[in-house]
Give the backbone structure.
Amino acid sequence: MAYKRKTLSLDDTRKLFKDGRKKFVTVEEGALLYSLGIHRFRDIAKDAKALYHVGRSALVNIEIVDEFMEMFRDE
């Protein structure tokens, strides 16, 4: 039997952060923070080697993703 995932709003996600930042977030939280789709964010996290599998959960190190994203900045 499948279950429905709890959807997170951006306000709910911001409440989870201390001082506006957490080191690890779920893929869903990261997608909200970066205004990307879940699949696109997961692909970026994989490319940045920032995706950690803990049991059946996937966590993303935001610090690594931030550094990776800076490489694509237009000047």
About this structure: The helical segments are 10-16, 27-34, 38-47, 62-70.
